[in-house]
Fold this protein.
Amino acid sequence: MTYPNLLDRFLTYVKVNTRSDEHSTTTPSTQSQVDFATNVLIPEMKRVGLQNVYYLPNGFAIGTLPANDPSLTRKIGFISHMDTADFNAEGVNPQVIENYDGGVIELGNSGFKLDPADFKSLEKYPGQTLITTDGTTLLGADDKSGIAEIMTAIEYLTAHPEIKHCEIRVGFGPDEEIGVGANKFDADDFDVDFAYTVDGGPLGELQYETFSAAGSEVHFQGRNVHPGTAKGQMVNALQLAIDFHNQLPEKDRPELTEGYQGFYHLMDVTGSVEEARASYIIRDFEKDAFEARKEAMQSIADKMNQELGSDRVTLNLTDQYYNMKEVIEKDMTPITIAKAVMEDLGITPIIEPIRGGTDGSKISFMGIPTPNIFAGGENMHGRFEYVSLQTMERAVDTIIGIVAYKD
Protein backbone atom coordinates (compact mmCIF):
# COMPACT_ATOMS: atom_id res chain seq x y z
CA MET A 1 0.00 0.00 0.00
CA THR A 2 1.15 3.58 -0.58
CA TYR A 3 1.12 6.15 2.21
CA PRO A 4 1.09 9.79 1.03
CA ASN A 5 2.85 11.29 4.05
CA LEU A 6 5.55 8.66 4.55
CA LEU A 7 8.23 10.12 2.29
CA ASP A 8 7.83 13.73 3.44
CA ARG A 9 7.79 12.62 7.06
CA PHE A 10 11.01 10.66 6.59
CA LEU A 11 12.74 13.53 4.76
CA THR A 12 11.77 15.92 7.55
CA TYR A 13 13.23 13.63 10.20
CA VAL A 14 16.55 12.89 8.53
CA LYS A 15 17.34 16.58 8.01
CA VAL A 16 17.57 17.01 11.78
CA ASN A 17 20.99 16.22 13.23
CA THR A 18 20.41 13.82 16.14
CA ARG A 19 23.84 12.20 16.30
CA SER A 20 24.60 10.74 19.73
CA ASP A 21 27.83 11.32 21.65
CA GLU A 22 29.60 8.40 23.31
CA HIS A 23 31.66 10.79 25.45
CA SER A 24 28.64 12.49 26.98
CA THR A 25 27.58 11.83 30.58
CA THR A 26 23.96 12.88 30.06
CA THR A 27 20.88 10.95 28.97
CA PRO A 28 20.10 11.66 26.17
CA SER A 29 23.70 12.22 25.21
CA THR A 30 22.95 15.24 22.99
CA GLN A 31 20.54 18.14 23.31
CA SER A 32 19.57 17.69 19.66
CA GLN A 33 17.82 14.43 20.56
CA VAL A 34 15.85 16.16 23.31
CA ASP A 35 14.84 18.91 20.90
CA PHE A 36 13.87 16.42 18.20
CA ALA A 37 11.70 14.49 20.63
CA THR A 38 9.99 17.46 22.23
CA ASN A 39 9.70 19.81 19.24
CA VAL A 40 9.13 17.37 16.38
CA LEU A 41 8.02 13.95 17.57
CA ILE A 42 5.77 14.76 20.53
CA PRO A 43 3.58 17.22 18.56
CA GLU A 44 3.35 14.81 15.63
CA MET A 45 2.52 11.87 17.87
CA LYS A 46 -0.48 13.84 19.04
CA ARG A 47 -1.43 14.87 15.50
CA VAL A 48 -1.49 11.30 14.18
CA GLY A 49 -3.84 10.20 16.95
CA LEU A 50 -1.73 8.82 19.77
CA GLN A 51 -3.13 9.44 23.24
CA ASN A 52 -1.48 9.96 26.62
CA VAL A 53 1.66 11.24 24.90
CA TYR A 54 4.54 12.19 27.19
CA TYR A 55 8.31 12.56 27.38
CA LEU A 56 10.26 10.76 30.09
CA PRO A 57 13.51 11.84 31.77
CA ASN A 58 15.14 8.74 30.22
CA GLY A 59 14.72 10.36 26.79
CA PHE A 60 11.82 8.22 25.52
CA ALA A 61 8.76 9.77 23.88
CA ILE A 62 5.79 7.52 24.68
CA GLY A 63 2.25 7.32 23.35
CA THR A 64 -0.72 4.94 23.18
CA LEU A 65 -3.34 4.05 20.62
CA PRO A 66 -6.13 2.27 22.52
CA ALA A 67 -7.60 -0.94 21.16
CA ASN A 68 -10.77 -0.56 19.09
CA ASP A 69 -11.78 -4.21 19.38
CA PRO A 70 -12.28 -5.71 22.87
CA SER A 71 -11.54 -9.19 21.52
CA LEU A 72 -7.95 -8.13 20.70
CA THR A 73 -6.57 -8.16 24.20
CA ARG A 74 -2.84 -8.09 23.51
CA LYS A 75 -0.83 -4.95 24.16
CA ILE A 76 1.96 -4.60 21.59
CA GLY A 77 4.77 -2.05 21.54
CA PHE A 78 6.83 -0.57 18.70
CA ILE A 79 10.17 1.07 19.41
CA SER A 80 12.66 2.99 17.26
CA HIS A 81 15.63 5.16 18.12
CA MET A 82 16.17 8.83 17.36
CA ASP A 83 19.95 9.02 17.28
CA THR A 84 22.24 8.43 14.34
CA ALA A 85 25.71 6.91 14.23
CA ASP A 86 29.17 8.44 14.44
CA PHE A 87 29.36 9.89 10.93
CA ASN A 88 28.65 13.42 9.77
CA ALA A 89 24.96 14.15 10.36
CA GLU A 90 24.99 17.91 9.91
CA GLY A 91 23.35 19.23 6.75
CA VAL A 92 21.76 15.98 5.60
CA ASN A 93 20.50 16.67 2.08
CA PRO A 94 18.68 13.57 0.82
CA GLN A 95 18.35 12.71 -2.86
CA VAL A 96 15.12 11.10 -4.04
CA ILE A 97 15.68 8.82 -7.02
CA GLU A 98 12.34 7.90 -8.58
CA ASN A 99 12.01 4.79 -10.75
CA TYR A 100 15.63 3.77 -10.19
CA ASP A 101 17.05 2.49 -13.49
CA GLY A 102 19.51 0.00 -11.98
CA GLY A 103 22.60 2.02 -12.84
CA VAL A 104 25.15 4.16 -11.03
CA ILE A 105 23.78 6.85 -8.70
CA GLU A 106 25.94 9.95 -8.32
CA LEU A 107 25.80 11.21 -4.75
CA GLY A 108 25.40 14.92 -5.31
CA ASN A 109 28.59 16.69 -6.30
CA SER A 110 30.68 14.83 -3.73
CA GLY A 111 32.48 12.60 -6.22
CA PHE A 112 31.09 9.52 -4.47
CA LYS A 113 28.61 7.19 -6.09
CA LEU A 114 26.45 4.17 -5.47
CA ASP A 115 27.58 1.63 -8.05
CA PRO A 116 25.94 -1.81 -8.37
CA ALA A 117 29.42 -3.17 -9.05
CA ASP A 118 30.35 -2.25 -5.48
CA PHE A 119 26.94 -2.48 -3.78
CA LYS A 120 25.15 -5.62 -4.93
CA SER A 121 22.09 -4.74 -2.85
CA LEU A 122 21.14 -2.18 -5.52
CA GLU A 123 20.24 -5.06 -7.82
CA LYS A 124 17.02 -5.55 -5.79
CA TYR A 125 15.65 -2.07 -6.43
CA PRO A 126 15.16 -1.21 -10.14
CA GLY A 127 11.87 0.58 -10.62
CA GLN A 128 11.65 1.66 -6.98
CA THR A 129 12.06 5.05 -5.34
CA LEU A 130 15.37 5.29 -3.49
CA ILE A 131 16.38 7.90 -0.96
CA THR A 132 20.15 8.40 -0.79
CA THR A 133 22.64 10.84 0.70
CA ASP A 134 24.43 13.56 -1.25
CA GLY A 135 27.72 11.89 -0.37
CA THR A 136 28.71 14.27 2.43
CA THR A 137 26.68 12.84 5.33
CA LEU A 138 24.94 9.70 6.43
CA LEU A 139 21.23 9.44 5.69
CA GLY A 140 19.81 8.50 9.08
CA ALA A 141 17.47 5.75 7.90
CA ASP A 142 18.90 3.98 10.94
CA ASP A 143 16.53 4.55 12.53
CA LYS A 144 14.42 7.44 11.33
CA SER A 145 12.91 5.10 8.78
CA GLY A 146 11.57 3.11 11.73
CA ILE A 147 10.16 6.22 13.39
CA ALA A 148 8.51 7.35 10.15
CA GLU A 149 7.01 3.89 9.59
CA ILE A 150 5.57 3.63 13.09
CA MET A 151 4.17 7.15 12.92
CA THR A 152 2.62 6.47 9.50
CA ALA A 153 1.04 3.22 10.68
CA ILE A 154 -0.59 5.02 13.62
CA GLU A 155 -1.81 7.79 11.31
CA TYR A 156 -3.37 5.23 8.96
CA LEU A 157 -5.04 3.26 11.75
CA THR A 158 -6.50 6.45 13.21
CA ALA A 159 -7.89 7.41 9.81
CA HIS A 160 -9.29 3.91 9.23
CA PRO A 161 -11.16 2.80 12.35
CA GLU A 162 -12.65 -0.09 10.37
CA ILE A 163 -9.26 -1.81 10.83
CA LYS A 164 -9.62 -3.50 14.21
CA HIS A 165 -6.47 -3.56 16.30
CA CYS A 166 -5.17 -4.23 19.77
CA GLU A 167 -3.72 -1.63 22.13
CA ILE A 168 -0.52 -0.17 20.72
CA ARG A 169 2.28 1.48 22.70
CA VAL A 170 4.88 3.52 20.88
CA GLY A 171 8.35 4.45 22.17
CA PHE A 172 10.96 6.61 20.46
CA GLY A 173 14.23 6.57 22.36
CA PRO A 174 17.75 8.01 22.42
CA ASP A 175 21.33 6.78 22.21
CA GLU A 176 20.90 3.34 20.68
CA GLU A 177 23.97 3.83 18.50
CA ILE A 178 26.22 4.28 21.53
CA GLY A 179 24.68 1.31 23.33
CA VAL A 180 23.16 3.09 26.33
CA GLY A 181 19.73 4.27 25.19
CA ALA A 182 17.80 1.34 26.61
CA ASN A 183 19.68 1.23 29.91
CA LYS A 184 17.07 3.46 31.54
CA PHE A 185 14.05 2.16 29.61
CA ASP A 186 11.05 1.85 31.93
CA ALA A 187 9.53 -1.55 31.11
CA ASP A 188 6.88 -1.25 33.83
CA ASP A 189 5.71 2.06 32.42
CA PHE A 190 5.64 0.74 28.83
CA ASP A 191 3.49 -2.18 30.00
CA VAL A 192 3.04 -4.39 26.92
CA ASP A 193 2.96 -8.13 26.35
CA PHE A 194 5.74 -7.91 23.81
CA ALA A 195 7.25 -5.32 21.50
CA TYR A 196 9.20 -4.93 18.28
CA THR A 197 12.08 -2.66 17.50
CA VAL A 198 11.55 -1.39 13.95
CA ASP A 199 15.28 -1.10 13.37
CA GLY A 200 16.24 -3.77 10.85
CA GLY A 201 17.60 -3.56 7.34
CA PRO A 202 16.21 -4.92 4.06
CA LEU A 203 12.71 -6.19 3.35
CA GLY A 204 11.68 -9.20 5.42
CA GLU A 205 14.24 -9.11 8.20
CA LEU A 206 12.84 -10.66 11.37
CA GLN A 207 15.41 -11.15 14.07
CA TYR A 208 15.38 -12.52 17.57
CA GLU A 209 19.02 -13.52 17.99
CA THR A 210 21.74 -11.00 18.68
CA PHE A 211 25.31 -11.11 19.80
CA SER A 212 26.09 -11.08 23.46
CA ALA A 213 28.46 -8.18 23.87
CA ALA A 214 31.19 -6.92 26.16
CA GLY A 215 33.71 -4.11 26.06
CA SER A 216 37.28 -4.44 27.24
CA GLU A 217 39.70 -1.69 28.19
CA VAL A 218 43.27 -2.92 28.65
CA HIS A 219 45.88 -0.76 30.37
CA PHE A 220 49.58 -1.44 29.90
CA GLN A 221 52.05 0.12 32.32
CA GLY A 222 55.58 0.38 30.95
CA ARG A 223 58.90 1.72 32.25
CA ASN A 224 60.71 4.17 30.04
CA VAL A 225 64.50 4.53 30.11
CA HIS A 226 67.00 5.74 27.54
CA PRO A 227 67.01 3.25 24.64
CA GLY A 228 70.79 3.19 24.65
CA THR A 229 70.83 1.59 28.08
CA ALA A 230 67.44 -0.12 27.89
CA LYS A 231 68.50 -3.75 28.06
CA GLY A 232 67.02 -5.44 31.09
CA GLN A 233 65.39 -2.23 32.25
CA MET A 234 62.92 -0.88 29.71
CA VAL A 235 59.37 -2.18 29.61
CA ASN A 236 57.72 -0.83 26.46
CA ALA A 237 53.98 -0.43 27.06
CA LEU A 238 53.28 -0.31 23.33
CA GLN A 239 55.10 -3.60 22.89
CA LEU A 240 53.02 -5.07 25.70
CA ALA A 241 49.90 -4.03 23.80
CA ILE A 242 51.21 -5.75 20.67
CA ASP A 243 52.15 -8.88 22.62
CA PHE A 244 48.70 -8.99 24.21
CA HIS A 245 46.92 -8.64 20.90
CA ASN A 246 49.08 -11.27 19.21
CA GLN A 247 47.95 -13.86 21.75
CA LEU A 248 44.31 -13.54 20.70
CA PRO A 249 43.10 -16.00 18.05
CA GLU A 250 44.39 -14.62 14.77
CA LYS A 251 41.25 -15.32 12.74
CA ASP A 252 38.69 -14.23 15.32
CA ARG A 253 38.30 -10.77 13.81
CA PRO A 254 35.19 -9.11 12.32
CA GLU A 255 36.64 -9.04 8.83
CA LEU A 256 37.22 -12.81 8.91
CA THR A 257 33.98 -13.99 10.53
CA GLU A 258 30.32 -14.38 9.56
CA GLY A 259 27.09 -16.10 10.60
CA TYR A 260 27.32 -17.40 14.15
CA GLN A 261 31.08 -16.82 14.45
CA GLY A 262 32.12 -14.49 17.25
CA PHE A 263 35.14 -12.22 17.40
CA TYR A 264 37.48 -9.88 19.23
CA HIS A 265 37.56 -6.43 17.63
CA LEU A 266 40.44 -4.07 18.38
CA MET A 267 38.86 -0.63 18.27
CA ASP A 268 41.64 1.67 19.38
CA VAL A 269 45.26 1.72 20.61
CA THR A 270 46.91 4.76 22.12
CA GLY A 271 50.00 5.35 24.19
CA SER A 272 53.73 5.61 24.51
CA VAL A 273 56.60 3.57 25.90
CA GLU A 274 55.54 4.54 29.41
CA GLU A 275 51.82 3.78 29.18
CA ALA A 276 49.36 2.42 26.61
CA ARG A 277 45.70 1.52 26.34
CA ALA A 278 43.77 -0.73 23.98
CA SER A 279 40.00 -0.92 23.55
CA TYR A 280 38.23 -4.06 22.35
CA ILE A 281 34.70 -5.23 21.81
CA ILE A 282 33.91 -8.93 22.30
CA ARG A 283 31.02 -10.61 20.54
CA ASP A 284 29.53 -14.11 20.46
CA PHE A 285 26.10 -15.73 20.20
CA GLU A 286 26.37 -18.63 22.61
CA LYS A 287 26.60 -17.89 26.32
CA ASP A 288 29.41 -20.38 27.01
CA ALA A 289 31.47 -19.13 24.07
CA PHE A 290 30.91 -15.53 25.15
CA GLU A 291 32.13 -16.28 28.67
CA ALA A 292 35.10 -18.21 27.26
CA ARG A 293 36.19 -15.20 25.23
CA LYS A 294 36.22 -12.98 28.29
CA GLU A 295 38.09 -15.61 30.28
CA ALA A 296 40.65 -15.94 27.49
CA MET A 297 41.45 -12.23 27.63
CA GLN A 298 41.84 -12.37 31.41
CA SER A 299 44.09 -15.43 31.10
CA ILE A 300 46.37 -13.60 28.67
CA ALA A 301 46.65 -10.66 31.07
CA ASP A 302 47.37 -12.97 34.02
CA LYS A 303 50.01 -14.88 32.07
CA MET A 304 51.76 -11.70 30.94
CA ASN A 305 51.80 -10.31 34.49
CA GLN A 306 53.28 -13.56 35.77
CA GLU A 307 56.01 -13.46 33.15
CA LEU A 308 56.71 -9.78 33.82
CA GLY A 309 56.87 -10.30 37.56
CA SER A 310 54.43 -7.46 38.26
CA ASP A 311 50.92 -6.35 37.37
CA ARG A 312 51.63 -4.29 34.29
CA VAL A 313 48.55 -5.46 32.33
CA THR A 314 45.18 -4.49 33.79
CA LEU A 315 41.96 -5.68 32.15
CA ASN A 316 38.58 -4.02 32.70
CA LEU A 317 35.68 -6.01 31.19
CA THR A 318 32.12 -4.66 31.00
CA ASP A 319 29.14 -6.63 29.74
CA GLN A 320 27.01 -4.52 27.36
CA TYR A 321 24.06 -6.69 26.33
CA TYR A 322 23.06 -10.32 25.89
CA ASN A 323 21.52 -12.49 23.18
CA MET A 324 17.79 -11.87 23.41
CA LYS A 325 17.11 -15.36 22.05
CA GLU A 326 17.45 -16.56 25.65
CA VAL A 327 14.25 -14.66 26.48
CA ILE A 328 12.26 -14.82 23.25
CA GLU A 329 12.60 -18.56 22.61
CA LYS A 330 10.58 -19.18 25.79
CA ASP A 331 7.51 -17.83 23.97
CA MET A 332 7.82 -17.42 20.21
CA THR A 333 4.45 -15.64 19.84
CA PRO A 334 5.91 -12.33 18.57
CA ILE A 335 7.95 -14.22 15.96
CA THR A 336 5.02 -16.42 14.95
CA ILE A 337 2.75 -13.40 14.46
CA ALA A 338 5.27 -11.30 12.53
CA LYS A 339 6.18 -14.25 10.31
CA ALA A 340 2.52 -15.01 9.53
CA VAL A 341 1.80 -11.35 8.75
CA MET A 342 4.77 -11.05 6.41
CA GLU A 343 3.82 -14.20 4.58
CA ASP A 344 0.23 -12.97 4.20
CA LEU A 345 1.66 -9.79 2.66
CA GLY A 346 3.79 -11.77 0.24
CA ILE A 347 6.99 -10.88 2.09
CA THR A 348 9.52 -13.65 2.59
CA PRO A 349 10.65 -13.54 6.24
CA ILE A 350 14.43 -13.50 6.63
CA ILE A 351 15.06 -14.98 10.06
CA GLU A 352 18.78 -14.64 10.69
CA PRO A 353 20.90 -13.64 13.67
CA ILE A 354 21.87 -9.99 14.03
CA ARG A 355 25.62 -9.59 14.05
CA GLY A 356 25.11 -6.71 16.42
CA GLY A 357 22.53 -5.63 18.93
CA THR A 358 19.36 -3.58 19.21
CA ASP A 359 17.59 -1.85 22.06
CA GLY A 360 15.53 -5.03 22.14
CA SER A 361 18.60 -6.91 23.37
CA LYS A 362 18.31 -5.06 26.68
CA ILE A 363 14.56 -4.56 26.79
CA SER A 364 13.97 -8.29 26.38
CA PHE A 365 15.90 -8.93 29.58
CA MET A 366 13.79 -6.27 31.32
CA GLY A 367 10.73 -8.48 30.85
CA ILE A 368 9.37 -7.39 27.45
CA PRO A 369 10.33 -9.80 24.64
CA THR A 370 11.39 -7.46 21.83
CA PRO A 371 12.50 -8.92 18.49
CA ASN A 372 13.49 -6.73 15.55
CA ILE A 373 11.74 -6.19 12.21
CA PHE A 374 12.94 -4.55 9.02
CA ALA A 375 12.90 -0.79 8.49
CA GLY A 376 14.54 -0.80 5.05
CA GLY A 377 17.97 0.77 5.43
CA GLU A 378 20.96 -0.38 3.38
CA ASN A 379 24.67 0.47 3.89
CA MET A 380 23.83 2.14 7.17
CA HIS A 381 26.12 4.48 9.15
CA GLY A 382 27.80 6.27 6.28
CA ARG A 383 27.67 8.23 3.04
CA PHE A 384 26.53 5.20 1.01
CA GLU A 385 23.38 4.69 3.06
CA TYR A 386 20.08 4.49 1.22
CA VAL A 387 16.54 3.20 1.65
CA SER A 388 13.71 2.14 -0.64
CA LEU A 389 10.40 3.94 -0.19
CA GLN A 390 8.59 0.76 -1.24
CA THR A 391 10.34 -1.22 1.51
CA MET A 392 9.33 1.42 4.03
CA GLU A 393 5.73 1.09 2.85
CA ARG A 394 5.93 -2.66 3.38
CA ALA A 395 7.18 -2.05 6.91
CA VAL A 396 4.08 0.06 7.57
CA ASP A 397 1.94 -2.76 6.16
CA THR A 398 3.67 -5.19 8.51
CA ILE A 399 3.10 -3.04 11.60
CA ILE A 400 -0.59 -2.70 10.75
CA GLY A 401 -0.86 -6.44 10.12
CA ILE A 402 0.74 -7.29 13.47
CA VAL A 403 -1.64 -5.17 15.54
CA ALA A 404 -4.68 -6.44 13.61
CA TYR A 405 -3.61 -10.09 13.83
CA LYS A 406 -6.14 -12.57 15.14
CA ASP A 407 -5.12 -16.07 16.24
About this structure: The longest strand covers residues 212-221. Residues 175 and 181 are 4 Å apart (CA to CA). The radius of gyration is 23 Å. The chain has two domains: 5-209+323-404, 212-321.
